[in-house]
Amino acid sequence: MVVATGPHLGPRKWVLLGALSLLWGGSFFLVAIALRGLPPFTLVALRVGLAAASLLLLLRLSGSGLPRGWAVWLACLGMGLLNNAIPFSLIVWGQTQIASGLAAILNATTPLATVLVAHLCTQDEPLTASRLMGVVAGLAGVAVMIGPTALMGLGSHLLAQLACLAAALSYACAGVFGRRFRRLGMAPLQTAAGQLLASSALLLPVTLLVDRPWRLPVPAAEVWAAVIALALLSTALAYILYFRILAAAGATNLLLVTFLIPVSAILLGVLALGERLTANQLAGMALIGAGLVAIDGRLLPFSRDAAPLPGAAGPGSPGPS
Distances in Å between the alpha carbon of 68 and those of 58, 74, 148? Predict the structure, then answer.
């Protein structure tokens, strides 16, 4: 019996995934700059608040608006919590304790968490051997590419590292949870604006209570520039692409972007700054490429007919969340 292994990525979806990796690839760097003048909750609240305002303006200019109804806003609230409020706060706090390279490696566990969550909660994205091998290869590629120096801090600042891993799990749950927006008939722009508006509402009281931002010194110009870039590029525009890819390609394929983020960052350095590729970076890219091929499955003749691993979702399993 042929078992579906989930949607595959066509050329257009790969282009969108690459663009998303570029937008998110710079977020760790921008966060590091913004943290020089802002505490974590204030930074995250500004990031999602400015992004929400920009998308609401786009909706108004396009002549459309946010859908109404309790089902829509409960979905936006859940997505805002899982995809913004929890992971953004955990990663930003984690980066106050650990290096951005190590944070990126821990964030790259997102696809591994996603294939497990999707395996348990969906019918059409079961955990197959090729997917599991692909995720392990991709994760190894990220570690090799970033290099052993980023791993030197592994074991210290345990809470910060656990926070980044918990953020990866939250992203994985969000990827599966977000499948419901397609059934609700929401366009990617509407979904992105709704989740960012909901996460802004969640984060505002926490920020006011914990950080008391009115007592903070005025940040430097570079901090504001980083915040604006985070909001408009790494959040607003990124989430329009995110929900477009999610609706077309599924949660597991979407969150392959965490493997591509370090690739994008390194290639940008080569193209824009004249940096040279090292042997470990080339080896890491090769491992990531092999992992992506294994997860996508089309170039592996056995993957389309491969049975899922024991316990995979079958015809009687629960549908998408």
Answer: 18, 11, 50
